[in-house]
Amino acid sequence: MPLSIATWNINSVRLRMPLVEHLLQTWQPDILCLQETKCPDDQFPSAPLRKLGYQYIEMHGQKGYHGVATISRLPLHELTDRRDYCGVGDARHLSVVFEAAGKTIRLHNFYVPAGGDEPDRTINPKFGHKLDFVDEMKLLHAEAEAGISSILVGDLNIAPLEDDVWSHKQLLKIVSHTPIETEGLISVMTGGAWVDLMRQHTPPPEKLYTWWSYRAKDWTAADRGRRLDHIWSSADLASKLLHVEILKEARGWDRPSDHVPVIAHFEL
Fold this sequence. Notes:
five-stranded mixed beta sheet, six-stranded mixed beta sheet, 13 strands
């Protein structure tokens, strides 16, 4: 059975709904996980998604900020979980459970705090919040539930490897690639027995980016990207991975997000 899971920081779902519809019509992933929806749950634009065959929608949103949503063609179990990481009331996590090819799979959808501009928690509370959030993620294990496989996706706002950024040396003191962040995220992955699917068939030193700044006058020419968006899984699903697509062309769509969709394709 083929299975495709997409993740995308949409940077306002209502503003960029035409782009979401285009993605679903053209690539037709089985499940799409969105981050930074910036939308309260009661105002989420579900109707056009259901018209496209995505009848199962779970969301964890708030007005104007953050927010995650998981949109599926596959039925979702009544086991949805919305965790309040760091206990500050932000809508940054959502997990759902679905069935595929006889497997029960829990799918986590994360939007990790960006962390502000200064990589020093003593003067920048946003950076401290990010580090605390990542520390709390270390409790999440890919094999936490007996008989249930796991996938973790989202905008994790950290580029963990040297080849996940355009210049390792120049970004070592830039939030998203500082050693304390990269080591923290790698600890989440290794300690939780997660497999980095994007690097499974595309190992370093090949560069991988999913984000290009709005500040670049010509983002394609500069190509100063970072891999901030991720797809991980438990080991049993990693062995079923066919390939991962990074839709770089989406960065050039009309009124784009600064992130692009990433799609993992499995054969279960």
